[in-house]
Amino acid sequence: MENFVVSARKYRPLGFDEVVGQEHITTTLKNAIEKNHLGQALLFCGPRGVGKTTCARILARMVNGFEAQGTDSSNAMNIYELDAASNNSVDDIRNLIDQVRFPPQHGKFKVYIIDEVHMLSTQAFNAFLKTLEEPPAYAIFILATTEKHKVIPTILSRCQIFDFNRIQISDITHHLVRIAKNEGIEAEQEALHLIAQKADGALRDALSIFDLIVTFSSGGKVTYADTISNLHILDYDYYFKVTDALLQENISQCLLIFDEILRQGFDGHQFLTGLAEHLRNVLVCKDAVTISLLEVSDNVRARYAEQAQAASTGFLLSVMNILSQADVQYKASKNQRLHVEMALMKSAHIPSAMQLAASLSSGEALKKKVM
Ligand SMILES: Nc1ncnc2c1ncn2[C@@H]1O[C@H](COP(=O)(O)OP(=O)(O)OP(=O)(O)O)[C@@H](O)[C@H]1O
């Protein structure tokens, strides 16, 4: 049996052109390498799983002219990685400094990656400063951190700083589409989009979730239904239905839908925040400019646009206001179910755009109110 290789490893980019969503960094690094302007101390900051280690390895390969090797192994590329989260003592740093004294046996540069550098003890930082300030010509230090504010100023001032972005949902989705195709896995666009959303900007997380869903889904196909059930995410369809019921002032329908949601094991708070986010999406769809802020697939976008036609801005803002107050008071509430139900009842009493439609005789007047 062939060993399973997790997608995050299998699809680690081997060149800057394959890195997703960090063009500002990859372009600068490429130019710096070509023009020989690369510093010897670089600080890579940003959230986890967005490509810091990947870019460090690509850089190491490029400065040594090893691009053609197509390998991701650290040893082969003169890369030395130290995880400062678990090796943060002054002795760990002294060992590293001892190693730095020896020039590389092959290639031109030794590249040291110190991950989670903010975890180094003060003594370790101090022991490291001199080497960082006057490194041998063949040494490049790449310090990586998810918490730049914890890195002491004396280190910051000695480094070229690169701020990595959270990766956009659309970029993550495209990447997953490519990988699914490459693996011959049938995947629904909506499912991949949801995975991208859940990953919260971290491509590594997106790939791990993707692997998990492929493993558990029926017939190896990645469907929206399997994805929401695996990730325990509430189907967005409920939010569309509740909003319709609110617009129709149909309190009983709202309460029945909420009951079904609770039965599925979701809590009232998740529902409140999910509904508020849904209404925000409806709101941004009311304007041709802000619609670009909506990060959803085309099918769902069309549904939002339809609901945006039916709901006035005033109605949406009033409901969001009620939900936001309910959210703040949720934890303190003694009966949380009733608390959410009351928020729904209050929201269903706001005159909706549909009522306006019925009460206004002229189409022109309606247009003015709804906009
Ligand atoms: N920008 C990206 N483009 C393409 N793949 C990426 C990107 N970021 C992360 N990945 C994928 O996620 C994996 C892990 O990324 P990487 O180790 O570079 O993240 P990191 O930012 O160093 O995270 P950490 O801070 O947790 O060490 C990579 O092997 C790759 O498959």
TrEMBL record:
Gene3D superfamilies: 1.10.8.60, 1.20.272.10, P-loop containing nucleotide triphosphate hydrolases. DNA polymerase III is a complex, multichain enzyme responsible for most of the replicative synthesis in bacteria. This DNA polymerase also exhibits 3' to 5' exonuclease activity. DNA polymerase III contains a core (composed of alpha, epsilon and theta chains) that associates with a tau subunit. This core dimerizes to form the POLIII' complex. PolIII' associates with the gamma complex (composed of gamma, delta, delta', psi and chi chains) and with the beta chain to form the complete DNA polymerase III complex. It holds the Pfam family DNA_pol3_gamma3. Residues 38-173 form the AAA+ ATPase domain. InterPro entries: AAA+_ATPase, ClpA/B, DNA_pol3_clamp-load_cplx_C, DNA_pol_III_gamma-3, DNA_pol_III_sug/sutau_N, DNA_polIII_delta, DNA_Rep/Repair_Clamp_Loader, HLD_clamp_pol_III_gamma_tau. Belongs to the DnaX/STICHEL family. It comes from the Bacteria. GO terms for molecular function: DNA-directed DNA polymerase activity. Keywords: ATP-binding, DNA replication, DNA-directed DNA polymerase, Metal-binding, Nucleotide-binding, Nucleotidyltransferase, Transferase, Zinc. Transmembrane segments: none annotated. PANTHER family: PROTEIN STICHEL-LIKE 2, REPLICATION FACTOR C / DNA POLYMERASE III GAMMA-TAU SUBUNIT. It catalyses: DNA(n) + a 2'-deoxyribonucleoside 5'-triphosphate = DNA(n+1) + diphosphate. SMART domains: AAA. Its EC number is 2.7.7.7. This is DNA polymerase III subunit gamma/tau.
